[in-house]
Write a structure and sequence with these properties.
single chain; mainly alpha; three-stranded antiparallel β-sheet; 7 helices; 3 strands; about 60% helix; globular
Length: about 140
């Protein structure tokens, strides 16, 4: 008989364990850049659009602003971003790349390919999996 509470049958376990292992595969590529995986995600969002409000950045990363703020603070201490009160709304904080932060993108371009190589799966399979996970994320977000 199938036990509905068997650990290996749980979607949450498969997602959590896979996430930890995949993030671990990023480490060898991110360490030379001086970035942790969460910091890398912040930089990816800023490389897409800079400056942006902390609130918008946190939303894009699916984080609470209180969680994103310390990540941004560490990137600011490393000289990769700046934080500045918005001139139009003093309650808002604008995050922008510094010249060093923008330049780091050139070195980071190799990261996705290195991770794909470590995983050893065809890119089409990984893209399909990413699309499925993104659809699952969106479905979960719509449930209150």
């Amino acid at each position: 008989m199938d036990d509905p509470l068997e650990l290996d049958r749980q979607l949450c376990f498969a997602l959590a364990a896979t996430s930890r292992e995949v993030v671990r595969l990023y480490r060898p590529s991110l360490e030379p850049l001086g970035l942790t995986h969460p910091q890398y995600l912040v930089m990816l969002a800023l490389w897409e659009r800079s400056p942006q409000r902390l609130r918008d950045l946190a939303e894009r990363l699916r984080l609470e602003p209180a969680t994103a703020s310390p990540l941004v603070g560490r990137l600011e201490a490393a000289g990769l971003v700046t934080r500045q009160r918005s001139a139009s709304d003093p309650r808002a904080v604008d995050i922008a790349l510094t010249a060093d932060g923008a330049a780091l993108r050139e070195r980071a371009v190799r990261v996705p390919g290195e991770v794909v190589e470590r995983l050893g799966h065809p890119i089409a399979r990984l893209e399909a999996l990413r699309d499925e996970l993104t659809a699952l994320l969106e479905a979960a977000r719509t449930i209150e």
